[in-house]
Amino acid sequence: MPSAVAITPVCPKNSLSQLSFRHCGAATHTVKLTNSNEKKVLIIDDHRLFTDGLRLILRQLDPTLLVSAEHNSNRALANIESLADFDLLLVDLQMPGLDGFALLEALSNRKPSLAVMVISGTEDYESIERAFALGAMGFVPKSSPGHLILHGINAVLSGNRYVPEELMEKLEWQKASIKGSIPRKSADNTEVPPALIRPRQLEVLKLIRDGHPNARIASILGISESAVKSHVSILFNALGVRNRTSCVQAAAKKGII
């Protein structure tokens, strides 16, 4: 018989608590481990090519992961009792029929002890906040590299909430924009709040100044190219510019670099 390990979700520093996600501090989840090494993960996603690729990548990164896939969310819910055999569910948000949000709500109501992490192409603040409010313990973009997805899996299996650092910074900006706390900016006459340009974005800014394209910046910093694009977008907004040259010029004028 698999042993049950009770895990209480926590909100570590630089986690979702900074975004005031309502689900932080939720009830204890129970993660069932088949033994001290193996972890059973179920991907619920209608895209077979994606699930096949992710299963292969995760198994290569961590042979102790036993990864299965279910391509029909309605069927997954119909067999909800069997879902308790898994340590973690990876759920997509955009699926035909029963979408990820409806599935999360049903799982939260009927099997609240199940650990669930969302893996989706949707990265907007409202969707991610809604997913956590419905019981998700983690969120990882589909564009993330395999090692980052594995890091999220391990974090959730340890009882922690998880969102990648680069996505957290993007969400903080989106949240501030929604609340209207980010003023319109001009590269010529408006100061840039220091908090809006974080250390990682400053690294990206300096590499832009040095003439590196996004792909090269991603390689140098060890992050995904999509993460670099997010940082560049934040820099453009913070400095009130529309291109890389103006970005570097505005930053130099303000003494940022």
Question: What features would you describe in this structure?
Answer:
There is one protein chain. With 257 residues, the protein is α/β, with parallel strands linked by helices. It folds into two domains: 3-163, Response regulator (Rossmann fold, 3-Layer(aba) Sandwich), CATH 3.40.50; 183-253, Winged helix-like DNA-binding domain superfamily/Winged helix DNA-binding domain (Arc Repressor Mutant, subunit A). Helix content is 44%, strand content 14%. The protein has eleven helices and seven strands. It has helices spanning 48-61, 73-78, 80-83, 100-110, 125-133, 146-157, 165-178, 199-209, 214-221, 225-239, 244-253; strands at residues 3-7, 29-33, 39-44, 65-70, 88-91, 116-120, 138-141. The strands form two sheets. A five-stranded parallel β-sheet has the order 4-3-5-6-7, sandwiched between helices. Strands 1-2 form a two-stranded antiparallel ribbon. Helix 4 (100-110) links the parallel strand 5 (88-91) and strand 6. The protein is elongated. The model is unreliable at 1-34 and 178-190 (pLDDT under 50).
What is the topological layout?
Blueprint: E1 3-7, E2 29-33, E3 39-44, H1 48-61, E4 65-70, H2 73-78, H3 80-83, E5 88-91, H4 100-110, E6 116-120, H5 125-133, E7 138-141, H6 146-157, H7 165-178, H8 199-209, H9 214-221, H10 225-239, H11 244-253
Describe the structure in brief:
With 257 residues, the chain is α/β, with parallel strands linked by helices.
